[in-house]
Design brief:
single chain, alpha/beta, SH3 type barrels, 17 strands, about 25% helix, about 30% strand
């Protein structure tokens, strides 16, 4: 097959490309230039997709003996990921930019261009397993649960997954680094990126403040309605947040307060006890079915609401484009704007059933 290997400049995509070459595919490497400021360089594990990363990816391609190109997707990335991120926070929701990037950039813009150029598949360094079952794709958790990225890939459609390759799905990170070292790849010990790539200093609140300005509002006790303080904008908060609330006085019971809800129109941030964060029902829209098979009845499943968050057994139903998930056990800190991802409860809860964008929750 002709395979386009997406090479971020990190160890994972480097080894994934090397394995595609070893499998006998005709491989071409490509690095996506996503930054509107190409002079920006990585510092330690802060950010990714920088000039330094492009150089690292090119050096790996040279060692593998494959052609290498840099494609400028900065404008598309700004529109689909960064602007969406800012707008979602402004609406009082909590986005996942990595999920959006996978959906809109790596498996929409990139894959579309790859197919148009005659490639059969796009290879990435994601930790997830992918196979065909009765001709349909089956997306599963990685063998390395600590690195599993099936959650951020669950927004991909079946037609996209049919042209995807995840060569690292059966591996653990330590083995991938060891393999990179044995291949003589300089990225073998390169730190992983743990931050939002377009916020290299890691200060999300400051980034949103620069883009949205001050939008003053009140911090309100959800139970009593008492005003506890003021803030510069709901975009500085997310459901489940405990620190940085700016409340001087402790709660009457002496326990910490948490953000329970955000109301962007009134500028109100409601806070309360940890127990009030418990959610037993999740409603989502824009459901996506990686296998191509939508739910036709209420099914047992395992629900996950963060990339590396807790899971809970649940029952899910799909009616008129809306997904309703009823949890057997409560989850805390579930925020509109996040994704709920459903896994099949058999086989260890590894197989992705579908995903949806969370729009509402209930107790």
């Amino acid at each position: 097959m002709r395979v386009l290997a997406a090479m971020s400049g990190g160890v994972d995509s480097a080894v994934a490309a090397a394995r595609a070459v070893d499998a006998g595919h005709d491989v071409v490497g490509v690095h996506l230039a996503l930054s509107a400021k190409p002079g920006t360089l990585r510092t330690g594990a802060r950010g990714c997709c920088t000039v330094e990363d492009a150089h690292d990816a090119r050096r790996v391609a040279d060692i593998l003996g494959i052609p290498f190109y840099v494609w400028d997707f900065a404008e598309r990335f700004t529109e689909d990921v960064i602007e969406n991120f800012v707008a979602t926070y402004a609406a009082g929701q909590t986005p996942n930019p990595c999920l959006t990037c996978n959906e809109k950039i790596k498996f929409a813009a990139l894959l579309d261009k790859a197919i148009a150029l005659g490639f059969d598949a796009v290879s990435t360094g994601h930790y997830a397993r992918l196979s065909l079952v009765d001709g349909e794709p089956e997306l599963r958790r990685s063998a390395d649960i600590g690195k599993d990225q099936s959650y951020v890939l669950a927004s991909l459609r079946a037609d996209q997954l049919r042209h995807a390759m995840f060569p690292l799905g059966a591996s653990v990170k330590a083995d991938v680094r060891a393999e990179a070292s044995s291949r003589g790849l300089a990225v073998a010990e390169k730190p992983d990126s743990h931050d939002i790539c377009f916020i290299p200093d890691g200060d999300t609140r400051a980034f949103l403040g620069r883009n949205l300005g001050e939008r003053p509002g009140k911090l309100v006790d959800a139970e009593s309605g008492a005003v506890l303080g003021e803030h510069a904008g709901v975009h500085g908060f997310t459901v489940g947040q405990r620190h940085g609330l700016g409340i001087d006085a402790p709660a009457p019971d002496g326990r910490p307060r948490y953000v329970l809800a955000l109301e962007p129109v009134s500028g109100t941030v409601k806070v309360g006890s940890r127990d009030a964060l418990a959610v037993r029902e999740i409603v989502g829209t824009r459901p996506i079915w990686p296998s191509g098979r939508a739910l036709e009845s209420t099914v047992d499943c395992v629900a996950q609401v963060r990339a590396h968050g807790s899971t809970a057994p649940a029952q899910a139903s799909h009616v008129d484009g809306e997904l309703t998930v009823r949890l057997d056990e409560p989850l805390r800190g579930v925020a509109p704007g996040q994704a709920v991802v459903l896994y099949r409860p058999d086989a260890g809860g590894d197989v992705v059933l579908g995903s949806a964008l969370i729009t509402a929750t209930g107790r």
